[in-house]
Amino acid sequence: MPLIVNNSQVHLPRTTAEFIRLYSHFEESAKAFRSRPTQQVEPRGLLYVQQREFAATTPQDGSVSIIGSEDATTCHLVVLRHTGSGAVCLAHCDGSDAVTEVSMMVSTVKSLSVASQSGRLELHLVGGFIDDRRLSQKLTLQLLGAFDCQLEDVHLVTYCVTELNDVVKKGVHWPIIYGIAVDITKGEIFPAAFPDKSPDEDLRSARTFTGGPMINIYDAETQQLKIKPCFWFPFPDVDFWLAQKDEMILKGISTSPLVEPSHFVPHLRSTLRFLKEHPIPDNLLFPDGQPRIYKKNVNGLWEGSKIASMSS
């Protein structure tokens, strides 16, 4: 069945501007969403999702109470929630394979909602801006099209992307909201920032940086965060990029160099150093070929695998 807005099948547009003209009520709802203060989310009970990752759980989860993600410039943050079961999934999409990623999200939320006798799938889209390369516009249209191709009705509730998440500062377009979080029990979605993005931030970033596909990082049944063994080829230019000034790294690697958050370059340098130390994933990262598994402790913080140093 199709993507639904106001209980009617959407008309898929050729442009994002056309979509806003057709469904102009999203302008007011996006304005209200953008006006909400950004909340700092502490690590207790948090499940943080990086780029090309998604995670899903239910209100019955005794370990995770918040799912969140940030650092979205041209990327989109996608939340899919079943109103009956309360199962919720959050993905950080960059346009690598929207059709496959959307199908994975829908399948995951459905599997967590099989016992629910009522309810519907509700979709929330946040992120992007009016970027020079039109990457945000392209991703918005890809996601709308991918959800419209699903067998289940999906009701678009929040649309705060691209033109509706854009502000001009000194002649430069910027995204307004970079991150969001979902309160799993309440189903509430709000702008958010995350001082802690553990566990295994560098490893997970390295997987994405080297072209890894979208993955599900959380097992709601066991309440474990799992990073399965992955592979990447040695990054040949790692020493070159580590030697560059911040401005060159922004210009050469970022899809939106003028509007990246202040921690973008330090984070990327950390990822590059990780790739230099671990040119290929090996037994230090995945002993005996097993996944790296983390579980929340009594303080709501992740405990589990530790990365071994090359020098140990």
Automatic annotation (TrEMBL):
One function term, GO molecular function aspect: protein-N-terminal asparagine amidohydrolase activity
Signal sequence coordinates: none
One of the Pfam families matching this protein, by short name: N_Asn_amidohyd
Segments passing through the bilayer: none
Gene this protein is translated from: NTAN1
GO cellular component terms, A-Z: nucleus
Name this protein carries in UniProt: N-terminal asparagine amidase
One GO BP: ubiquitin-dependent protein catabolic process
